[in-house]
Amino acid sequence: MKTFASSSSGRRLFAAVVAGVAVVFSSTQARAAAPVTGTISFTGGADLNGSLSTATAYTGFFNSGLITMPVVLGGSQTGSFASVPTGTQVTFYPFTFLPFTAPRTLWSFTAGADTYSFTATSLVNVTPLPSYLNLQGSGVVSITGFADTAATWSYTDTGSGAGPGFNFGASITATPEPSTASLMTVLALIGGAVRIAAKRKLCLQDRVS
Question: Of 73 and 185, which is predicted with more confidence?
Fold first, then answer.
C-alpha cells in the first residue's frame, strides 16, 4: 500500500512539472511579437553605373514628375503590409552588387506611426542582359511592433541603351519561421522534467527494495 501511494505521488509530480512547462511556453509565445507576413512591391526608376548588362552598382533611385523617389505599387500590399497606402514614397539606398557586401539596408519608409525597412543578408542571383537586370537574395524585414522576419527580395530593371536611368521595380516576400530559441527552451524544460521524474522513480524503487 505504501509503495502504491509513493508511485502515485511520483506520477503527480511528473504531471505537474510538464504542465508547468506548457504554461511557460504558452506565456512566452503570448509575449513574443508576431512575425511579419505578406508581400509588398515598389515601382520607379533607378540609376546604374553602366548598362543593364555591365552595371555593378545602383547609384541612385528616382520617380517621375514631382515624386522624387520610388513608391509602393498599388495592389502589391498583403499581410502585414496591407495597410500601407499605395503611392507611399520609399527611400532606396545606393549600393554595389558586384561584389555584394552584407548586411546592407536596401530601403525604408514610414506609414502612419510605423517604420518599415529591409536589410539584405545575401545576394544569390544576378541576371544581367542587354534589356533586363534582375537581382535576388534573402534578408530581414522590420516593421514597428513586429518581430524581425526572414524574407526574400528581388530588384528588376528594364529598358535599353547605356543608361544611367532605367525602369525599376522591387519586391519582398516575408517568410516567417518558428522561433528556434523558444523551441529549444521548451525541449530543455521537458527534458529536465523527464529526468526529475526518472530520478524520483529510482528513489521510490530503492525505498521499496
Answer: 73
Domain with 185, as residue range(s), is 2-32+180-208
Q: What is the DSSP letter of 79?
A: G
Q: With bands split at pLDDT 50, 70 and 90, how would you rate the model's confidence at 58?
A: very high
Question: Bridge partners of 104?
Answer: 120
CA distance 139 to 123: 9
Residue 103: all three cell numbers together: 548586411
| Residue entry with cell 529536465 | 192
Cα–Cα dist 169/44, whole Å: 6
Considering the domain architecture, whether residues 64 and 101 belong to the same structural domain is answered as yes
Longest dimension (CA), the chain: 93
The residues with which 118 forms a beta bridge, in sequence order, are 107, 141
Q: What is the pTM of this model?
A: 0.72
Q: How many domains does the chain have?
A: 2
Assess whether 115 and 150 both reside in one domain: yes
In whole angstroms, give the CA distance from residue 50 to residue 184.
Answer: 49
Q: Tell me which DSSP letter residue 35 carries.
A: B
158/77 same-domain check = yes
Cell numbers for 120, please give them.
539584405
SS3 content of the chain, % helix, strand, coil (to 5): 30, 40, 30
Cα gap 64→71, rounded to integer Å: 10
Counting every residue written for the chain, the total comes to 209
